[in-house]
Design a protein that fits this description.
32% of the residues lie in helices and 17% in strands. It is globular. The structure holds succinic acid.
């Protein structure tokens, strides 16, 4: 269906795991639901996810307490414990629902789910499909399930802004498939628009990951936090192909090791991602090289266990049985996003968020491997349950609890700092959006990527301002609109990164190399005045 005239109960922006699983659930509940996405339903970052979904589906020695402890440890004292508890407790049921929708996960010889171990996990608990093609399988199952419902599907529509009336979100403005500007009205809007890997030159994210959801939220004055925590995946294949092919963390879980150019190992490969990526970056800088090596030659069953990675490598004439594989860290995941409570409500009445676009508090300063698909499924479902139960507006729970009072302690005792931020005015120039996007990516990679400092960040701030002035009006096309979104997110990210004068998780400051216990607090762009559109 593509008709949009009747107002919807729930309009979902984005078609990754959070958006599609929420759409199936909403349709099951009899809600009038629509999914609006700028590509086809199948095009989303979820499709590129390899390793899998972390969930406690096996018995001893695993437990949800252990999964919780690993998640909190990876997040370096910045997770919201209540949100993490929900994640690990409700995750297994969401995985079983996916299976009942038709997703096929790998099984062991006894017919049980085959569980892999990844960095930061104290035991094997990652379910996977097709070896390391988990995202492809989840997307396949969810797209088929959504297409079988009565959901209104607005594919190749580009959502440009939230529509706010009387302080409530009542829909979005969008450019439809024929280029016409439209308004899609809905009682509730769920942002599930993914992350912003396109801020950087080297990323594992597809070309669509342009921070559209976070940018729309910022323009509407919706609270946002933790954007400074951009996770770099340590083992992206060092190759000119973009997005960078991923060499799943599961390879290291199976025994692959990281070596420098002298063949030396220098980091525990099963540490959380921030630790491994930072150690690699330092080693590369010291040696003056742009990549290191993943040695998977000891993995006897490589082609059978990881068929998709094996065939991607074969296309590039690499044989993991005999060749060390060139690797370098690549921008992978935005740990922060739109502030939500424990059911996904944002600071704007009627607006909800789930998945990578949201900050519900489960990732803290560094996401635990394979917790992202889980986050999307668990909190996407919670949004639908809350909408179906007549919920509207946020409660003071989870990350949202920080907003109860300025600089006050939240329920989890992690307090926050508020940062005044104004989204940059983008437009008025006649620059080529593709050229300006590349300039932004170069600047972000050099000054706001793996390593940051006061000077490097202030250089990026100046470049972002210059690019915003040279950028064409966002209404001139989707490439100009994506550039405006990237510039908006870049401005907020650099402001938060400059304010965080310490190193923690995925945020590394060369001028403040230590973690500062006093800064175990969120830095937050607080809600602005939501003005009517
Ligand atoms: C991977 O397979 O290494 C990626 C999974 C994730 O991002 O958690």
């Amino acid at each position: 269906m593509t008709q949009t005239d009747a107002p919807l109960d729930l309009l979902i922006i984005g078609s990754g795991v959070a958006g599609l699983s929420a759409a199936v659930r909403a349709a099951d509940r009899g809600l009038a639901v629509g999914v609006l996405t700028k590509g086809e339903l199948e095009q989303s970052t979820t499709r590129w996810a390899q390793g899998g979904i972390a969930a406690v589906l096996g018995g001893d020695p695993d437990s949800t307490d252990l999964h919780l402890a690993d998640t909190l440890a990876a997040g370096v004292d910045l997770c919201d414990e209540a949100a993490c508890r929900i994640l690990v407790d409700e995750g297994p049921a969401r995985v079983l629902e996916l299976i009942s929708l038709g997703a096929v996960f790998d099984r062991d010889e006894g017919g049980g789910l085959s569980l892999a171990r990844e960095g930061g996990h104290s035991t094997a608990r990652v379910v996977h499909a097709g070896g390391a093609a988990t995202g492809v399988e989840i997307e396949r199952a969810l797209v088929a399930a959504v297409r079988a419902t009565a959901a209104v599907l607005l594919e190749r529509w580009f959502a440009t802004d939230l529509v706010v009336e009387d302080g409530s979100c009542v829909g979005v403005t969008a450019v439809d498939v024929s280029g016409r500007v439209r308004t899609v009205r809905a009682a509730h809007v769920l942002l599930a628009a993914g992350g912003a890997g396109q801020l950087f030159e080297v990323t594992t994210n597809p070309v669509e990951a342009t921070g559209d959801g976070v940018a729309m939220a910022l323009r509407a004055g919706v609270a946002v936090t933790d954007l400074e925590f951009v996770q770099f995946h340590p083992t992206a294949l060092h190759h000119r192909r973009m997005p960078r092919p991923l060499l799943s963390e599961a390879l290291r879980g199976h025994g692959a090791v990281i070596r420098d150019h002298d063949g030396e190992r220098f980091v525990d490969e099963l540490s959380p991602r921030d630790v491994v990526s930072r150690a690699m970056t330092r080693r590369m800088l010291d040696a003056g090289v742009d990549h290191l090596w993943l040695d998977a030659t000891g993995l006897a069953a490589f082609p059978a266990r990881f068929p998709t990675i094996a065939s991607a490598l074969a296309e590039l004439d690499l044989d993991p049985g005999s060749d060390w594989l060139p690797i370098a860290p690549a921008a992978h995941y935005l740990c922060g996003g739109v502030v939500t409570d424990l059911v996904g409500a944002t600071t704007l009445d009627g607006l909800w968020a789930a998945g990578e676009v949201a900050c519900v508090g489960v990732h803290g300063a560094n996401r635990l491997a394979s917790n992202s698909l889980l986050d999307g499924m668990v909190f996407g479902a919670r949004v639908v349950d809350a909408v179906d139960a007549g919920g509207r507006g946020p409660s003071a729970t989870g990350v949202m609890s920080h907003l109860r009072e300025p600089d006050g302690a939240g329920d989890d005792q992690v307090s926050c700092t508020r940062l005044a931020f104004e989204a940059p005015l983008v437009g008025g120039g006649d620059g080529d959006p593709a050229v300006l996007r590349r300039e932004l990516q170069r600047a972000m990679s050099r000054g706001a990527g793996m390593l940051r400092s006061t000077d490097s960040l202030s250089t990026v701030v100046d470049i972002v301002a210059d690019l915003a002035a040279r950028a064409p009006d966002p209404s001139t096309g989707s490439d100009a609109a994506e550039l405006a979104n990237l510039l908006t997110v870049a401005a907020a990210l650099t402001a938060l990164a400059a304010q965080r004068r310490e190193s923690r998780g995925a945020h590394t400051r060369e001028d403040f190399p230590d973690t500062d216990v006093a800064l175990s607090r969120r830095i937050l762009v607080p809600p602005g005045q939501a003005s009517d559109s």
